[in-house]
Amino acid sequence: MKAVVLLSGGADSATCLALARAKGREVFALSFRYGQRHRVELRYARRLALRYGCAAHRIVTVELPAAGTSALTSRKIAVPRRAGKRGTIPVTYVPGRNTIFLAQALSFAEAVGAFEIWIGANVVDYSGYPDCRPEFLRAFERMANLATKAGVEKRGRFRVVAPLLKMTKLEILRLGASLGLDYAGTFSCYDPSAEGEPCGKCDSCRIRNRALRHLEKERR
Fold first, then answer.
1. Which of the residues 70, 120, 191, 204 has an alpha carbon 20 to 30 A from that of 84?
2. Contact, 128 vs 80, CB < 8 A?
3. pTM of the predicted model, to two decimals?
4. Do the beta carbons of residue 186 and residue 44 sit within 8 Å?
5. Residue 2 bridge partners (DSSP)
6. Which residue intervals of the chain are DSSP H helices?
7. Which domains does the chain show, CATH number per domain?
8. Helices 169-178 and 11-22: crossing angle, nearest 10°?
9. How far apart are CA 92 and CA 36, in angstroms?
10. How far is CA 102 from CA 71, 98, 127, 174, 202, in A?
11. Is residue 203 within 8 Å of 92, Cβ to Cβ?
């Protein structure tokens, strides 16, 4: 079975890729260059796609009209160094990003004859992003089956697969480790140095590093 996997190069998307391959999927990986300050992640995405024998790996450049409104796409907005207030949408939210990414993935999927789109969305450690919520993913899935020739002709049913949606970061890393994924080959920092080194202080770094420390303790 064919599947399109959204592959950023981070820990979550890499885990999705490893899981999809473990379940026997023929993977068509899709990554994006969207003006992100952490575009070094694409280096890791390329290596992961090769490591896991993806049938294809596309890196698409997207010109986001609201690129300067997020800390991930504007140097004028500081990346937070501490977790935001629960229930608020963080400044690292990129307007429309997952909607755009999933639309690109749907086009890719229909073109190659895939009916699964895998995404590493998570609502536990990264709560607050409206486009990571299960109701959004279900709504997109319904739209996908209404808006495509393949869906209308009933040649298959498109599914948005989000296996990590309700897992903690530690549970995600445990899963990846059980599949043989080396997290040293992933990159999850929002505010890397000019040399591409993780800052170790942003929310993404702190959650990842805390989970990795716990995982190491469990292995001893």
1. 120
2. no
3. 0.95
4. yes
5. 26
6. 11-22, 41-51, 97-112, 134-147, 149-152, 169-178, 203-219
7. 2-219 (3.40.50.620)
8. 40
9. 10
10. 21, 6, 19, 26, 26
11. yes
**Single-letter code of the amino acid located at 22:** A
Q: Output the six-digit token pair for 74.
A: 């504007």
What does each of the 220 residues of the chain score in pLDDT, given as a tens digit?
999 999 999 999 999 999 999 999 999 999 999 999 999 999 999 999 999 999 999 999 999 887 778 999 998 999 988 665 666 888 999 999 999 999 999 999 999 999 999 999 998 866 678 999 999 999 999 999 999 999 999 999 999 999 999 999 999 999 999 999 999 999 999 999 999 999 999 989 999 999 999 999 888 7
How many residues are given for the chain? 220
Which amino acid type is present at position 137?
L
